[in-house]
């Protein structure tokens, strides 16, 4: 089948990857669209400890085409994929917090093989392939009417950005919000903050191309910054008493420290961007004294089975602006060009169209 394999030295578009049949509790999903996330590029760059060869990709949607014993999801159901292979039964899962589940079991056998050799499945999904096998808990049913390229984003960028704002930081009406870094997740956070009724949404980024889209999604202020000191200066200039919620969406400790430095009393700083595993952070313990909090956040800290259908419903009702997040769509064979676009700052979100045909890379104006 059509797939892209990262060998550790090259990204190979190939037809010789095979996918195994679904086992008990598992489904085969035909992937129709998959977003390109910074985490995929981090794996290419060696910032994530990822064995190779591997099928990357984890932000995706598709249709269930086969199922193993004991599965309730119907064949033909449109689904959004999730990296959370949660158990569904432990205390965390029962409490609606599958991001804290420690009991999810990895797939028993390799899902992918190439010329008889196993190929890894990135974060239990492996979406840059026409088909994948995942656990039933990793698919969330969504209405067919949500377009594929938007639907894919519900699996990571939109889920994470909205979850960080609505759930993890619980942004309320009237809050002042700072978003550091306007990538796909940061821009989703901007829109979530605006919809939550934030009185101010300041976006800082070093890429001037981000300004128009940030405003379209609800940012009240946009400032170009280069250093962490610039972030502090921009934030203090607008809100001398600080921000109620700040979101570091880049994954740099100096920017996270800036996001802590500009918190209001009672403010929450959320770590959304992922640095390399051993990255240290230094800040003054007393900096959190005034009831401030520093919060980790995994996949938006939400239950995708609750949250994704809610997002889909509000998108279909015309409340969520998600289409403008997608800057380019490309077939799998042109994924290298999407990656180049992401690295050079030309992409908000790039989406791979796996439905085949003669489509070629199309870019659209972000604004
Ligand atoms: Zn992602
Ligand atoms: Zn569990």
TrEMBL record:
Look up keyword Phosphoprotein and say if it applies. no
Record domain Enoyl reductase (ER): where: 8-352
Residues folding into a coiled coil are none
**InterPro entries named among the record's database cross-references:** ADH-like_C (IPR013149), ADH-like_N (IPR013154), ADH_Zn_CS (IPR002328), ER (IPR020843), GroES-like_sf (IPR011032), NAD(P)-bd_dom_sf (IPR036291)
Q: Which family does it belong to?
A: Belongs to the zinc-containing alcohol dehydrogenase family.
Keywords, A to Z, come to: Membrane, Metal-binding, NAD, Oxidoreductase, Transmembrane, Transmembrane helix, Zinc
Q: What name does this protein carry?
A: Zinc-binding dehydrogenase
What SUPFAM superfamilies does UniProt report for this protein, alphabetically?
GroES-like (SSF50129), NAD(P)-binding Rossmann-fold domains (SSF51735)
